[in-house]
Amino acid sequence: MRIALLCKSAVVAGALVLACSTVMAQDGANVEQNLDRLIETNSCQACDLKGVNLNRYDLSGADLEGADLTGAKCYLANLSNVNFRNATLVNVGFGGADLAGTDFTGANLEGASLSGAYLIGALFDDAFIQKVSAETEKQEEIAVVEESDHAAVTEQETVEPVVEEVVEEQEVREEPKVAEQQVPVVEESIEIVEEPIVEEPVQTVQQEPMIPVVEDEPTMAPAPVEKMDEESVEQVEVAKIEAVEVAKEVEQQIDDVRDTVVELTDTKAVAMEMFLDEKKCYGCDLSGLDFSGENLKGADLEGANLNNCNLSGANLRKANLKGASLLHANLQDANLNGVDLYKADLSGADLTGADLEGTVFEDTQLYGVVGLNKESVLLEPALQ
Questions:
Q1: Which letter does DSSP use for residue 377 in this model?
Q2: What gap in Å lies between CA 181 and CA 169, rounded to an integer?
Q3: Rounded CA separation 231/141 (Å)
Q4: How far apart are CA 323 and CA 85, in angstroms?
Q5: 3-state secondary structure of 261
Q6: CA proximity to 159, closest of 52, 240, 48, 258
Q7: By C-alpha distance, which of 147, 45, 50, 134 is closest to 86?
Q8: Helices (H) and strands (E) in the chain, counts
Q9: CATH class of 279-384
Q10: CATH architecture of 25-124
């Protein structure tokens, strides 16, 4: 009887394991099937697309209402006018993607990355817009804290000279005490001189006029001076303690800021070194770096962050700058012959003297651009 029960239990357990494996396989297959369906029909409402890779896909106008794209990658994808209403978009990467006119109403965008995305005309819930505004205000508060740190350093530099002046003043006031300590030494010398006066009436002893002068010297250090010295010493000690505490706080704040700057600088330095070696840096952060005069011919910088970069005199002939951000970049006298700037953002950039022959300016942001060559034939449509 027991053997029969054990056999039945083993059979049931094996059936459960087989059923679970079948379900897991079907789930994986469903995701792949749903992706094939989306690519073929440009529609997949309420379907499972968790973790799919849609980088650089063209899904303009797709219907993905209620779909689950948790953890999906959509970098530099064309998702303009897509229906994402009530979709689950948790931790989805939209870096550099075209989201113009896309509807995100009711969608869950928790942890989603929209860095460098093209968002003109996109629809979001009020709650999401308020969250983005709050994050922006937080960044502004961090900037204010950094300014206060700089002010604290300036205050510390001002406190140290004041402490030194108080110490010097204290040393000057303590000089009368040194004179008091010398008085008993002089009195002992007087006693020694008295013996030769009795035995040998030598006039040399009478010639020492220092005796009455030494007796008058104690009158130069009145009693109140000791009290003033004690008070000044206490003030100096208090000032030193306060200065040390302020210095420690400022030093800690400076170290924190320095660590952050070093970390960011090291990261960018590594990215710059890799880029100069391979001439390829897809979607990376190179903001603020100096590439002046560098030969970057044919470089692939699609979706890269080149804000405030110095690219003056650089050779960027036939480089790929699709979706790149070049806010306030210095492109003076740069060779942009044949460069692809499709949907790139050049707001505030300086193009004075740049070679723009054959440059592609399709859907490029050109607000506040300086030194724009309006005679370029390919540039004319972008200016209309």
A1: T
A2: 20
A3: 43
A4: 25
A5: helix
A6: 240
A7: 45
A8: 7, 0
A9: mainly beta
A10: 3 Solenoid (2.160)
